[in-house]
Amino acid sequence: MDSKLILITGLPASGKTTLARELEKALKSSFCTLWLDGYELRKIFGHEEMSEMAARKMEEVLPRFLEVLKGKGLLIILSIVASKESFRERLLGLMESVHVHLVCGERIRRQRDAKGVYDKAIEGKIFLPGFSETYEELKDADLFLDTTGLSIDEEVRAVLKLLRERGWI
Fold this sequence. Notes:
Layout: E1 4-10, H1 16-27, E2 33-37, H2 38-44, H3 52-69, E3 75-79, H4 85-92, E4 96-103, H5 106-112, H6 117-122, E5 143-146, H7 152-165
Parallel strand pairs: 1-3, 1-4, 2-3, 4-5
């Protein structure tokens, strides 16, 4: 059985990690899931802090890593910023995929920002997609979620509904 990919994208602090964590909890009893988060991947690639080098390393190495996982029969949940359209398209083209994109206003993202990345970006200490560099507009996604007004349970239900419609669950 081939692996499948749930790609969760959005600006920093838009709720990607929270949604991915709760989605994995909802799916792990029925599937062999693997959740990969951008923060953890940056640590693996040797760039814990957000930097332009870390973003480029992610764009270079992550598709190769997913290619290795392609035939493992996993349900991969990938929560990353993915600011470039070409990178998102490359990831989605590796295997059967669904793309969930999260949006919310800057004020909410700054309130949620437990790591202080927006302040660090203002001070010029880190590279922040959507702040230090333009976040390329999405041409499309399978599901857009405005996390400003949705509870995490509503977000998870929306993704599960999409997976049911695709015949994944």
